[in-house]
Amino acid sequence: MNNEATARTALLRSSSDAASRVFATILTRSPISRIDVARFSGLSQAAVTKAVTPLIAAGLIDGSLDGPKDGLRGRPANPVAVVPNALISVGIKVNPDELVGVATDLTTKVLASRRPELSSSGASRVMDQIVALVHELEVDLGSLGAHIACVGISVSGDVDVERGFVRESINMGWIDVALGDELRERLGHPVIVENDVRALTIGEHWFGVGLGTASFAIVTIGRGIGSGLHLNGEVVEGAYGVAGEIGHLPLTSPDKICACGRRGCVEAVAATAAIVAAVSAAHGRALTIEDAVGLAHDGDPAAVSAFSEAATVIGTAIASLVNMVGPEVVIIGGEAVSNFDLFEDDLMTSFREHAFGAAAKCRIIVRPHTFEDWARGAAAAAIRSLVV
Q1: Stated pTM of the model
Q2: SS3 109
Q3: For 93-147, what is each residue's pLDDT tens digit?
Q4: C-alpha pair distances (Å), 236 with each of 167, 222, 229, 241
């Protein structure tokens, strides 16, 4: 990081609460008039001016834009906008077989990306490859590489964000991995470690559906069944960092054993591996998820049944979530939504059967997310860590 980027990062990290709110408002709504900054942040115009001045001087905010006239006074509305390339964030999604890395500007526009395979899922080797990936992205950025200000790592499972500590990641086979401390030391950048679905939710909160929605949830279907919550304008982290773990609600038969070792979890029948195992057992041979999808589309009874059971329990889990916290919208994402036609009817039937009263008005929408989108979520989480 060059001296200019270092100074900008230091300014953000030392900002008052008011200045942080002003920068976050401008960041997510650029370009925006100072009057609207005050309205959205809940601050006075004088407080906004006081907060914006050092941000402009540091090159984080552009205050020289020409704007429309104020309709009431006939004066310029004084719009301001974030300077996107003032700082660069790196986001990395850790999968059992690969890393997905992106370098983004402050608006999470992807400037460079790489997707290397993992030679091992062991924590030590993964950290080696994360370090190498960050350096490769830095090279890809050219002169902008000196503006890298933060690195976000997203991992499935139980993550202690404050300590940068992965308590447990079933998909990775990790227990008590101090990911953040080692990566901070080796990279020389601030590092945030976040649960992957919560990172995706942070990205939607700042740059997606969250901008116009007071409350929403993301439910992801694929290797695991995860959920992120955005309630009353904030992403819910929970006291222990495990808010929204609907994949481990005990909503199915206790004879179904989950990969986490517990019985009756949603993931025990609805995760990709569980669906593949059920269809493989019925056919007496090892199959892939692609095989299972093809068989289901062809009407194979075992495959149709496996997807139906998965969809029914996911619908029940979503209804349970909606009954408890009442979001306006539930976004269904994850790699399995490319085959959502195999889930949709049973999932929606189950949701409607179990949603209580007005909770049934919650909109369910499908929004495919690529793994690059997950990595962008990690980058957004890193940017957020500089501001709030």
Answers
A1: 0.89
A2: coil
A3: 999 999 999 999 999 999 999 999 999 999 999 999 999 999 999 999 999 999 9
A4: 18, 22, 5, 9
Q: Which DSSP helix (H) or strand (E) runs through 50?
A: helix 45-57
Q: DSSP string of 309-373? A: HHHHHHHHHHHHHHHHH--SEEEEESGGGGGGGGTHHHHHHHHHHH--GGGGG-EEEE----HHH
Considering the segment(s) 86-203+373-387 as one domain, its CATH architecture is 2-Layer Sandwich (3.30)
225-231 β-sheet, strand order: 234-235, 225-231, 216-221, 329-333, 363-366
Ramachandran bin of 180, using left for φ above 0, alpha for ψ from -120 to 50, beta for the remaining angles: alpha
Selected from 1.10.10.10, 3.30.420.40, 3.40.50.10860, 3.30.930.10, the CATH number assigned to the domain covering 3-83 reads: 1.10.10.10
CA distance 250 to 268: 9
Q: What letter does residue 269 receive in the DSSP assignment?
A: H
Phi, psi for 304 (deg, rounded to 5):
-60, -40
Given the DSSP bridges, would you call strands 165-169 and 174-177 parallel, antiparallel or unpaired?
antiparallel
Helix 34-41 crosses helix 45-57 at what angle (to 10 degrees)? 110
Q: Report which residue type is found at 165.
A: F
Question: Could you report the per-residue pLDDT of 303-324, keeping only the tens digit for each?
Answer: 999 999 999 999 999 999 999 9
